[in-house]
Amino acid sequence: MTVETLHDKFVYELQQAYYIETQLVDVLEEMDQTTADEELSNGFQRHQRETAEQARRLEDVFEALDERPDAWQCHALDGLVEDHSEFLEDAAADDDLIDLYNVGAGVKVERLEISVYEGLLNHATELELPNEVTEPLDETLDEEEATLTELEGAMSGSTIQQLFGRLTG
Ligand SMILES: [Fe+2]
Predict the structure, then answer these.
(1) C-alpha dihedral over 13, 139, 28, 90, to 10 degrees?
(2) What torsion do the CA atoms of 87, 84, 119, 4 make, to the nearest 10 degrees?
(3) Which residue, 65, 137, 149, 150, shows the most beta carbons closer than 10 Å to its own?
(4) What is the distance in A from the centroid of ligand 1 to the CA of 154?
(5) What's the confidence (pLDDT) of residue 50?
(6) 17 Cα to the center of ligand 1, angstroms
(7) Alpha helix positions (H), 35-168
(8) CATH number of domain containing 54
(9) In angstroms, what is the span from residue 113 Cα to ligand 1's centroid?
(10) Distance from the CA of 70 to the center of ligand 1, in angstroms?
(11) What domain range is 150 assigned to?
(12) pTM for the whole thing?
């Protein structure tokens, strides 16, 4: 698409958000499958279901704008996914290290998503877009922030602390 106005830029970035959410449905499944710790893996599973709903919510936003729900490639997400695969395939020699990497990768992805949704909401305010557009975006931003808090909590929680204990013991 050609971006000539702020509204075009908003739609362009909305398409990138849609790319991120739809790609993440598969990525989170892989993270769930490669995480050995059950509690951490359940967290990825929960977030995968939430992500499928976030993708669906974006379809409502496209509809409210009378736009087709297209996905525009987000290289930042692709880079994170590539880093993740490379670590698992070529570097990690231990389940604990993979679990630790997965939690850190989750934090990176959440920070990216939060930046994307904050940017969208900022433009939506400038463009005076209706509630049908801003409410779903706000709802998803709240969920992403809650997930980030959960992941950061896991970093200092007992599961990761035990894992650090094994890795430094
Ligand atoms: Fe998400």
Answers:
(1) 50
(2) 100
(3) 137
(4) 18
(5) 96
(6) 8
(7) 38-64, 75-86, 95-126, 131-156, 158-168
(8) 1.20.1260.10
(9) 6
(10) 17
(11) 6-168
(12) 0.92
